[in-house]
């Protein structure tokens, strides 16, 4: 019985109600003065409150599916070495490798380094920056991770692929470092020859907090999509030795960040070639955190619905990797539906864990093979279509199995 099963929820609610009922009965029976009866009444009240809090916690966890098993809570549910990527091999569309170059403006202000500068050649460097958008007029914090190879003479005159990484909502860019450990995961995959170096641009897709824009150019509001898809990549490419948009840029995120990654890749295939969604969804959410995103504009609403785009428009030439687990019952059906709708020239792969919830523990287990997958795709594009796993074996085979899967188009409704 999983932590998000209806049986477990019913059992917890029933147990909680019994405890509260017994507490009310016990309070009517406890009488007298002095420390003994006082402590007894206090204990009964605490037991009733704990029972009520437990019911609320189980109900909230059941709704959001943060933890689906005890091992999920303890962090032992996932092992990155056992994660299997199912789908197509890394064969992104061939591009001319030139991409589009933004204006040479200095819109990145570097505040400080997170890691000591002396460790740059061995562990890389993390820079705390503010990116100012020339087209959107927005500004946002971004942590830029430069891998050790960035400082190596071998790469002194070579640009690297760039990867925009986004968290869920509500969250902050710092969680990508402190909770998800993206820089250290990237460093580890490079050291074990499972991935080639990439520059990580870790930023919050919530560019106008606390409002959740769903990475949208909001009608009569902030142009979050323009900032994330155009301003951010243009600014980083102009400041650092990173490929120009269209010549080796990808996206990755969890939950809302995963939705944004897939949506932006589909809307901007001339700028992004690959995207990874960790437990993402495939329709823009509208609630009290977002407000009115579309202002009655049906076209804008459709462009924020990847499933609608696959159903009604030609598929874009991008590659996506989507992940979830068999116990994440709210995300799993939508993920399978999305995969069934993918058609050429779009390509899709998937990671479906046996168990795991909507939390950092599950995503951290999926992150290493996802970075390997992205590295293979982005370096293929950066090398003008040459496979990343060439005869020179510049990228060792990651500890996952890849196999081809036939993806069927979903019939029109």
Automatic annotation (TrEMBL):
Residues 401-413 have a biased composition (Basic residues). The keyword Magnesium does not apply. One of its GO terms (molecular function) is acyltransferase activity, transferring groups other than amino-acyl groups. This is Enterochelin esterase. Keywords: Membrane, Transmembrane, Transmembrane helix. It comes from Actinopolymorpha cephalotaxi. InterPro entries: AB_hydrolase_fold (IPR029058), Esterase-like (IPR000801), Mycobacterial_A85_antigen (IPR050583). Residues 389-413 are annotated as: Disordered. The lineage of its organism: Bacteria, Bacillati, Actinomycetota, Actinomycetes, Propionibacteriales. The chain crosses the membrane at residues 6-27, 39-60. It holds the Pfam family Esterase.
